[in-house]
Amino acid sequence: MILESTIINTTEGDLPEVYILFEKAIEYQKSKNYPVWHGFDRLTLVHDVASKNHYKIIRSEKMAMVFSVCYADPLIWGKRETGESIYLHRIVVNPQFKGQKLFSDVLAWAINHGIMKSKKSIRMDTWVDNANIIDYYKSFGFQFIDNARTPDDNRLAVQNRNLNVALLQYDLSDLLK
Q1: What is the CATH number of domain 5-176?
Q2: What pairing do the DSSP bridges indicate for beta strands 164-171 and 54-59?
Q3: pTM higher than 0.90 for the full model?
């Protein structure tokens, strides 16, 4: 049975549930001995929601997943930042929906969104020492670009500072023709 998903902006009223999803994600990371976010930056999430750059996937009338987007990421991508990409960040799955490959919904949305904004790629980063998640994203067509170290910069969400990350990219250029 295929369940329908809807992707819409989160609202300020959704934030308490979003915070719970982040807390559960951290618990899950710990239980699997994955790299762990050391807390999460609520102010970044508030800003993402207020600027309409935070989204939720609704499935079976429940918040199944959340994610943020941005259109420039010079702190993480450095000299590779060209203004030609959409960036996915802070992807969190509701534990009730784990294993359902909801990322395929995010990717389909991001492809459409990126094309509408004339972007050439979708980019994301993840922990360099979590081969499972890197392979997961690669299974959707993302290519490994390089490893990088995020700066200790207060413009980054606290959970994204001082990390060794793998930079991943999904090419949209063939779809723009």
Answers
A1: 3.40.630.30
A2: unpaired
A3: yes
